[in-house]
Amino acid sequence: MKIAILAAGGVGGYFGARLAAAGYDVTFVARGKHLAAIRKNGLRVTSPLGDLVIEHPKVVEEIDSIGKVDLVLLAVKLWDTEAAARSLKSVVAQGAAVVSFQNGVQKDDVLARHLPREAIIGGVCYIAAVISEPGVIAHSGTMQKLAFGEYDGTRSARVEAFDQACQKAGITTEVSRDIRRLIWEKYVFLVGLSGTTASIRKPIGPIRENPHTRAFLLDVMHEAVAIGRAKGVALPENYAEDRLAFCDSLPATMTSSMHHDLERGNRMELPWLSGGVADFGKALNIATPRNSAIADILELYAAGTH
After folding, report:
1. Does the pLDDT value for residue 306 go beyond 80?
2. Among 5, 242, 216, which Cα is nearest to 125's?
């Protein structure tokens, strides 16, 4: 199985490195200092599950220079989805499937504006990994899971092949017959975690312990559930309460990548997370006061402050 990784950030770099270490033909797409460091020193991963170094990885600057591949793992930031989709036309025309492990629920609709629907596999990833320095991916915690599946619920040969590759690479997997629901389940939690930690500027511990901020977190997730149910996603009515209980099981110091981005002055995925819930609410005539407030409060920081 030939696999392309677009791009070799925290998510793509980690899972791509695990697949490459298992012997699969993996080509990474990277830019700038990260690309230069990978070419010079290889791609390094630090992880509680075991460090690894891919000594001489295949790495390119543009994906259309790769040629024919079987599968593209898409892991760019959400604002780059449109450009990434356009860049994938050539490899998809040669038979590649695309599975996005990005955040949000809008990603595959954006891909489908540029690529055939049948080329797109639904995906969700669960991991905390970042580029700690050029050429180095730092994985924190032990969670490293990929869930994926065809949108029509079938268990296709390409999904089976990727599942086998992941298992050989030591990656936890779930092949789903209802991948849209899984994507929305993660979205509900992610909207709650990112929206509250970024707007309150605290990790999850203090937020869940204070009755006012705990209620705020629950309301944020309730709104996301209401939007998903209105869109026909099979989320239980009490799913926000389920995710609040999950929040209670997390380390008190856990925060979100959006909170990290805010603190560092980086661009944030706000328009697709709380901003996305607010936009869906306007389109569906569903009130989303908490998420709308988060989007408004963070608006001045959304593009980054560098």
Report:
1. no
2. 5
Q: How far is CA 32 from CA 22, 39, 62, 96, 256, in A?
A: 27, 11, 12, 26, 25
In the chain, which ranges are continuous DSSP H helix?
Answer: 10-21, 32-41, 81-87, 89-93, 107-112, 157-168, 179-200, 204-209, 211-230, 239-248, 257-264, 274-284, 289-298
CA quadruple 176, 179, 182, 183: dihedral positive or negative? positive
pLDDT of residue 62: 94
CB contact burial 250-287 (16+ within 10 A = b; e otherwise) = eeeebbbbbbebbeeebbbbbbbbbbbbbbbbeeeeee
pLDDT tens per residue, range 191-246 = 999 999 999 999 999 999 999 999 999 999 999 999 999 999 999 999 999 999 99
The C-alpha angle 46, 272, 280, rounded to 5 degrees, equals 150
Complete domains list, the chain, with CATH: 2-177 (3.40.50.720), 181-301 (1.10.1040.10)
Per-residue confidence band for 141, with pLDDT thresholds at 50, 70 and 90: confident
